[in-house]
Fold:
Amino acid sequence: MLPYTQHSLNKLEDLLKANNYRIRYEKGNFKSGVCTLLQDKILVVNKFSDIEIKINSLIETIIELDFSNSNLDDKQKKFLNLICKTVL
Structure:
């Protein structure tokens, strides 16, 4: 299980940034924590959500996106595999 810390959130953000996704923290009326604009590769995260909700929302989004591993370094690939194993 992934700990709910700022470090874990930063690692998830790095995975997304490696695949050219931009992450913005904004206030909004969306409950899930993340609003995805796929055409622009932008993820809008509700900045008022708890860190647990932010992390779970980003994990769900990463699994839904199913992006390429080619842009990731070895540590990021291991981290992505860890996420996939814990969720699936």
Summary: The longest helix spans residues 51-65.
